[in-house]
């Protein structure tokens, strides 16, 4: 059954069928072939119950927040301000890519949206200033992955919803690893450019006065981040309420800095509808598939297979990590999460591991899947923004950063406190 399901999943994805539709087709297939009773009769109730959650309302709000920041021009000004502060490092403007991605990760909650934002703003600069296309584009793709680690994160919201884990605790747990991963990207970039200076382009410095004036473009985004994330950590607002506050704050910033137009609002709302519809189709399809898998006994089959290996907790955890790395090559990240969580998380928590810690470890592995071919979404997003060159250049440039993520996963396993220190320190 497991081999049949894997082959069916890969085959349908190879036909370029949307991921959410693939999940429904697989569920119907299991229903017809292996379920002892017709699951499709309860499809309406299942769709309603899996989508009728106040927690999931945070998703369109966070998507709209990112759309407003991008389409109002705030992203362009933020990129220019960070360029003044980090372009003196070995690698020059490449560091501005990572720094901008880090900042917008803390507001958008989506890796694809973050990568698209930075790529749209940065790519013209790379072509004009003669940067190596591989490292420059690879850094954007990797920096974009931080969108699902640094809070607020849509993927962490989905994980918390599916596992009934505290979302504020997950946000706290993801903050330090996310910032450390961003710092590691900067260090890797500097090392590569010291080794081969031609990769990094020109290192530029700016007068202190110009750098200080650039802070005016950073302070509104920092204040918005503080309002959204700070209200969650302080217990003043739920993630959904904080997301609504963030949208209101983004509208105020846009009105004060660049003005709000009907065209901008229309484009932001349409983009929000498209992205939210895609996410919810995947979540609902995965819920139906998980229901079908449970009915057919596949979840127990996979759990029995893993526990039947007779391994101690740590070796078994490493097998699960390897499973995510391999599946990440072929399956879209949100789909990989929602399909595997009901099977893997009970097994992992049964081994004595903390569900908050495992959520962060899973996110790191999911981040890696975003920049590994053939299904790494951020690779295609960045290539689309380039409008020239080969996709293989983006893939090659992302390799050092993918290895950095693997090192971060190893660090989380060796030192769980990287994820658990903040939630435990700030626990009420």
Question: Secondary-structure blueprint of this entry?
Answer:
Elements: H1 2-14, H2 19-33, H3 43-51, H4 58-71, H5 74-86, H6 93-108, H7 111-129, H8 133-144, H9 154-163, H10 167-195, H11 208-233, H12 239-257, H13 262-296, H14 298-307, H15 313-328, H16 333-350, H17 355-369, H18 377-386, H19 391-414, H20 417-425
Helix pairs in contact: 1-2, 2-13, 3-13, 4-12, 4-13, 5-6, 5-11, 6-7, 6-8, 6-10, 6-11, 7-8, 7-18, 8-18, 8-19, 9-16, 9-17, 10-17, 10-19, 10-20, 11-12, 13-16, 14-16, 15-16, 15-17, 16-17, 17-19, 18-19
Short note summarizing the structure:
The protein has helices at 2-14, 19-33, 43-51, 58-71, 74-86, 93-108, 111-129, 133-144, 154-163, 167-195, 208-233, 239-257, 262-296, 298-307, 313-328, 333-350, 355-369, 377-386, 391-414, 417-425. With 428 residues, it is mostly helical.
């Amino acid at each position: 059954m497991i081999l049949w399901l894997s082959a069916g999943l890969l085959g349908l994805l190879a036909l370029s069928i949307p991921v959410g539709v693939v999940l429904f087709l697989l569920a119907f297939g299991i229903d017809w072939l292996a379920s002892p009773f017709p699951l499709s009769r309860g499809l309406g109730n299942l769709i309603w119950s899996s989508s009728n959650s106040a927690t999931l309302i945070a998703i369109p709000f966070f998507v709209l927040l990112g759309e407003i920041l991008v389409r109002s021009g705030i992203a362009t000004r933020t990129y220019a301000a960070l360029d003044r502060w980090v372009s003196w490092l070995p690698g020059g403007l490449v560091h501005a890519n990572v720094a901008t991605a880090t900042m917008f990760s803390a507001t958008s909650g989506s890796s694809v949206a973050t990568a698209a934002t930075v790529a749209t703003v940065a790519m013209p600069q790379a072509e004009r200033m003669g940067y190596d296309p591989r490292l420059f584009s690879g850094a954007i793709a990797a920096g974009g992955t931080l969108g699902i680690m640094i809070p607020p994160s849509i993927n962490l919201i989905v994980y918390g919803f599916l596992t009934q884990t505290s979302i504020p605790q997950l946000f706290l747990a993801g903050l330090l690893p996310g910032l450390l991963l961003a710092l590691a990207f900067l260090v890797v970039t500097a090392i590569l450019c010291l080794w081969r200076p031609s990769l990094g382009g020109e290192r530029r410095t700016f007068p202190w006065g110009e750098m200080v004036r650039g802070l005016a473009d950073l302070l509104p985004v920092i204040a918005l981040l503080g309002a959204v994330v700070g209200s969650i950590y302080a217990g003043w607002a739920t993630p959904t309420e904080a997301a609504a506050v963030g949208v209101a704050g983004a509208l105020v910033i846009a009105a004060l800095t660049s003005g709000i137009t009907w065209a901008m609002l229309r484009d932001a709302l349409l983009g929000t509808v498209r992205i939210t519809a895609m996410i919810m189709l995947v979540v609902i399809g995965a819920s139906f598939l998980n229901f079908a898998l449970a009915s057919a006994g596949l979840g127990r089959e996979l759990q029995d297979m893993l526990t039947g290996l007779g391994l101690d907790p740590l070796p078994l955890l490493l097998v699960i990590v390897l499973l995510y790395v391999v599946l990440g090559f072929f399956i879209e990240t949100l789909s990989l999460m929602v399909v595997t969580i009901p099977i893997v998380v009970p097994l992992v928590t049964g081994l004595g591991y903390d569900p908050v810690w495992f959520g962060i470890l899973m996110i790191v592995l999911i981040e890696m899947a975003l920049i590994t071919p053939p299904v790494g979404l951020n690779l295609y997003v960045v290539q689309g923004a380039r409008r020239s060159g080969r996709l293989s250049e983006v893939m090659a440039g992302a390799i050092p950063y993918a290895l950095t993520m693997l090192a971060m996963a190893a660090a989380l396993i060796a030192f769980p406190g990287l994820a658990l220190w903040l939630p435990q320190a700030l626990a009420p």
